[in-house]
Amino acid sequence: MLPVAMQGAQRILVPGEVVAERSGRRGVEVEGAVYRTDSQYRAKTLSVARYDERGEVLRVIPLKGKYIPSVGDIVIGIVVEVGFTSWLVDINSPYTAVLPVSEVSPRPVTIPRSDLSKILDEGDLILAKVISFDKTKDPVLTVKESKLGKIQRGLLVEISPKKVPRVIGRKGSMIKLIESMLDTEVIVGQNGRILVVGRDRRREEIAALVIKKIEAEAHTEGLTSRIKEYIEGML
Amino acid sequence: MSRKVQAVKLLDEQGRRVDGRLPDELRPLKIEVGKLKNADGSAYVELGNNKVIAAVYGPREVIPRHEALPDKALLRCRYSMLPFSVVERKSPQPTRREIEISKVVREALAPAVFLEEYPRTAIDVYVHVIEADGGTRTASIIAAATALADAGIAMRDLVAAVAIGKIGDVLVVDINGLEDQYGDGDMPIAMMPQLGEITLLQADGVFKPEEVRHALEMAFKHIRYIHSVQVRALKEAYARAEEGEIVG
Amino acid sequence: MAESRLSVKVIPTLRKDLLLASLKRGERLDGRGMQEYRSVKLQCNVVGKAEGSALVQLGNTKVIAGLKTVLTNPFPDAPDQGVLIVNAELTPLASPLFEPGPPREEDIELARIVDRGIRSAPAIDFGKLSIIPGSKVWGLFIDIYPLDYDGNLVDAAGMAAMAALLSGKVPKTAVEDNRVVVLEEKENLPVLTKVAFVTIAKVGEFLLVDPSLEEEMLADARITFSFTERGEICAIQKMGAGSFSIEEILEAQELAEKASKQVFQVLSQIA
To answer: Where is the Exoribonuclease phosphorolytic domain positioned along the sequence (chain B) (predicted)?
Structure first.
């Protein structure tokens, strides 16, 4: 099957489906969730194949799947266990993350366990960054950078991690729309968790509903104005 | 089970089977994807009167932790027949047959999954047979592979399966309950259809050596058809993603 | 349910606050009224090999129940009565909260609540299921399997079991030389009344009909009432680690009786 040549059009692939032949077509690169056999690129997962803007690279993007961390990802985590020198953090992934005490404070300290729960306790939400992960060990987080740390207020929304780019929108347009219309800050974790912090709970709830609505519906020109109307109707 | 005594005439003078099919005819096949909310992936399959539902959870944390594998996902599979799925009510306790089928189904799926992509996790596959009529293991494999794809798990290929049977000297495809009980052979086969690789092969009854090749070729043909139904079911379930999606 | 720390997410306190705030405004998280059931879809005769069967979808909770009629011996203390056996299994197919293995207390409790409601009402005239008194009777085996768990298995399971009985058929029999001959012809089961199961969850000061999974997990306690069509109560079960005051029990009973009409309406589609 030859790839669709029109820019913007896309097709759905199932695992094992041939995306493109490796030899022959000049200048067609295939990137993403594919594997190579001798002569072909085949899709690895349920995915969409789409040409990039210049029509030179065919991107294969998974439609579904769990969040697998990458170094550098900003994530929203929930503390599930307080240890002696670290916390275990649920980051909505098959892999539970570790936040060492050395990644909380810039000063080297040894703190007895009872003090650790005073800093972060079970059930606390944190905004963190993944600083290492190689699948053979649990991912390691840090909260030492600015804007990271314990989340004190706001509303948590969970969406499918694969839908995060859709919620962000082209060049962040969707996020900017929600933030300006509802006077809330929207912090998007790569792990499918989103925090909305607004000036009142009502606006936070509307923002949360809007995000779930975007997740459920495809992003088209129509969606942007539908969301605008929806927000206006709720306010 | 007596194979030689035919209590029922399985092939009539026109070469038609008890349900009217020709030897090379598959039963009607229906596949629905993604109807379960909790499961990460799911598929419901009807193959003739067989009705099975498969649910996939994973990759997810391995419980108990000590069973995790350091370099790949742990694939686990449980096949169970619900008590009302058969004519004589079946007790809910797992039988030896269910335990064996759980194993061969797992081994039918494992070659297709990129287990190395998810070390130290578990991928759990659960299949319930809601109604049985010969061929539940093949229907289960069809459902389980579709559910794995629906869960977004990385796979080399889907897996499809069909059982070839024998009535006298005639090879027949996709045997039903009566043909399984009174026929002369039962050979379930699973394959990765696009790669042409066999991942499950069993047999009971008696097959002549040359019949094995014939049976495998017959199976491959029907497995390719079953694969096309799996593909259509998966793509239809995700059709909405095609409408002008923008990725930031 | 499974309580391993790492397999069940710790529910942030933000969520319970949100639920209580919503309830104070008279609304649940999914927009329902406090006494409103989620949408129900009921399909009967979904399993050809079973003598009766039903698939219930209550919101996202899905439960299938199958009825098998089995020739069996009566219990010695009820020689002229048919036998009822209800079994339920919460398998990991339906939820990450269910573990594989032999029936646990939740599986057994679910089966026994449904059994109690059907038996006490009585939903079935068990005397009519006797074939040779003291020797051979019909045994009604109801097997209940959730396929998707999103709260309130009891009501969904009870509806599925009742629907399987209402739409099911039992073979006619003849007795020759003191032996039972099972005939081809089938007839309806001798149903005396429909039975409805209504579960109420207590969250803070609020009583909610048909709790969703989230409401169940945040609830202090739950209580199930089972009703006959005449409004009689044929089973009660309080569940969960919290408690009810006497007033709360009576209020829940009233709410449940009113809500039972929604369940009977669904069951009346069948017969």
So the answer is: 25-153, 157-221
Residues in chain B: 248
Query: How many Å separate Cα C50 from the centre of its chain?
Result: 18
Distance from CA of B98 to the nearest CA of A (A): 28
Q: β-pairing, C179-188 with C195-203?
A: unpaired
pLDDT at B2 over 70: no
State which residues form the domain around B79.
Answer: 29-238
For residue C12, the distance in angstroms to the closest alpha carbon of chain A comes to 5
Structure-derived torsion over alpha carbons of residues B13, B18, B20, B22, reported in degrees to the nearest 10: -70
Q: Which residues, other chains included, contact C205 with Cβ-Cβ below 8 Å and sequence gap of 6+?
A: none
Rg over CA atoms, chain C: 20
At C249, list the tokens: 């029990």
The burial of A203, by beta-carbon neighbours within 10 Å (0-12 exposed, 13-18 middle, 19 or more buried), is given as buried
Residues 6+ apart with CB under 8 A from C78: C126
Pick the CATH number of A74-150 from 3.40.1180.10, 2.40.50.140, 3.40.50.80, 3.50.50.60: 2.40.50.140
Instruction: Check CB contact of B121 with chain C, cutoff 8 Å.
Output: no
Q: Are B45 and B29 in contact (CB under 8 A)?
A: yes
pTM of the prediction? 0.91
- Summarised one tens digit per residue, pLDDT across range B94-110 is 999 999 999 999 999 99
Q: Using DSSP, state whether B90 is helix, strand or coil.
A: coil
Residues in chain C: 271
If you ran DSSP here, which 8-state letter would residue C9 be given? P
Q: Name the residue of chain C whose CA is nearest to B56's CA.
A: C93
Q: Are B36 and B143 in contact (CB under 8 A)?
A: no
Q: Is the ipTM of this complex over 0.85?
A: yes
Q: Are residues C6 and A123, on separate chains, in Cβ contact within 8 Å?
A: no
Q: Which CATH number fits domain A155-234: 3.40.30.10, 1.10.3430.10, 3.20.20.70, 3.30.1370.10?
A: 3.30.1370.10
